[in-house]
Amino acid sequence: MFSGIIESMARVVAIEHEQDNIHFTLTCSFVGELSIDQSIAHNGVCLTVVRLKDDTYTVTAMRETLERSNLGLLKVGDEVNVERSMQMNGRLDGHIVQGHVDQTATCIAVEDQQGSHQYTFKYESTREMVKHGYFTVDKGSVTVNGVSLTVCRPTADTFEVCIIPYTYDNTNFHAIKPGSVVNIEFDIIGKYLARMNELTNEK
Question: What is the H or E stretch that residue 131 is in?
Answer without folding.
Answer: helix 127-131
